Amino acid sequence: MSEDFALRMKEQGNALYREKKYDDALCCWGTALGSLRDKTSPLAITIRSNTIMAYLSSGLHERVVKESTLLLQVDPRHTKSLARRGTAREKLASNRGSLATFQQRKEFHNLAVEDMEKCIEILNEETDSDPGQESLKRECKKALQRLSKLDDEYYTQIAENLDNGVAKNTFDSGLRKYMAMNLTPLGEHPRIPKSSMRFEMLAVRLIAALEFSQRITIVDDETGKLVSKANDYVERGKDILNLILTTVAQVPFCLFPSKGSSVRCPPITVHLLAFYMRTCLSEKAWKEFKIEEFCEEATTHIITDDEAYAIATHGYSEVQDRHNPLHGHGKTFAQSARGCMPCCFRLTREGAKDWAAGLQQAVHFGKIEGAAFVLNRLLEGIDGKSVVPTMLESDEAGCNSMMHAANDMTSGFSWLSIRMLVQAASFSTSDPNEKEMAVRTVLNKADNFGFTPALASCSLMNHATMEVFAQVGARLYDKKINGRAATKLMKAHDMIMGQLDCMGEDIANLTRALKSTSDELCSYCGRSPEKKLLSCGRCFLAKYCSGVCQKKHYKKHKFVCSSAKVDQDLDWFASNVSAPRP
Q1: Using CA atoms, how far apart are residues 359 and 367, in angstroms rounded to an integer?
Q2: pTM, whole model, 2 decimals?
């Protein structure tokens, strides 16, 4: 039964791929692969080969190398994987937009040559060749010809140009570049009035305080002469930034890594800072941090309200002309929300309304700036849109925004996308009962095939999303949200869970944690007690059948539950602030 289901999903994915809907195709193939017990069967290998081709078509070359290598461990003579891995390594070697060094490019080059030669060698050994194999052989030979023309001088030139470009952008970047170009402001737009951009404008001012070192003139007490002295705005700005990040790193938000520079952190951008300030800071925090007072004092002489608004919205005539579809830029939020903020605001001014598609694409690829932009606009009620209904809108494959976040296996920021969606749903209403139902619906709404986001992450064995779903209380299946599941669907669920129990202790523990939120099981031992479960007194998410289980589980649970404190690495945080660029 599982093989028939997988075969149907494979064919549906193939049809979507032919229509160049690569993300939807990957979703179907991931579901098909998750339903198969044997991941090394011929059907599973075919599905995995298809996913590699979709990654290659999407330009995810690092993922192609990784998945091809895993497949070649199962079938070392799989020629398509060798050729695709070689193609991906060729792209990584010659990509002018990459920051790879000369040594890294040469290594990719040599490995690509090895893959292509190995593929041709295997194809030559085949006695019964078909047109597809001959075509693959010709492609490999063409790739070797291209690679033979790329010498050390070529890679050296790319590396030198990139080094010069990086140095130039670093010297003349961000707010300085915007303000030095004397651009023509477009003015306030009725669709994004200044009142709706309050937090974004504050974020611009805070970044300005960190970027511009200022000097003030004071009277020396001893000599009575005027002397020039550096002010402490930069250091105070660093302190305020650290207070914001410390707040959002704590339970229940957990929207920033509590270990600062020791782990991979999201870029600290205008719209992410605005999302943090809009949804996480209480009135008490605003009074204590004095963000508005500091920004007014530190940046009044640097930047006006009109300039802060124009920079936050990329509202300049020259910028809008540059980011025009005629120059290859996006025509929809689905294209631009992957990271091009000038295009996003241009589309906003032009009246684009595909907010759900933009959010889906942003979280699917871990583009935090794009996700923050869409969520901020929705929280401000643009076009009369509500946050939760927009999150629940589905694409053609039946996947909503949370499902797309669950399918992000490459960016490293899927945990943040999921938590941002949860936080936005929670912030969208002040009523406690409505808040709980909004979060529960966003977390547990099933797709057209009956898969919830948590179950989809299990079928894909996506360790990062499984972990965060367990932390936020997602369920494998929620009858209250999705109704009673069909018997066939429950069998597929049980089969997936059975496979995961054999995948090692870490996966088994995450599966058990997800089962505990779904079926009211103990978060430590996984049993269903006769009496009511006890909840953790801090996060109220973990549940235990006894104090003994809670004590034993605390060694791991404390890293999720305890109030996090961001490391006081203020210089590191300040250097990782990403200012808007034209």
Answers
A1: 9
A2: 0.66
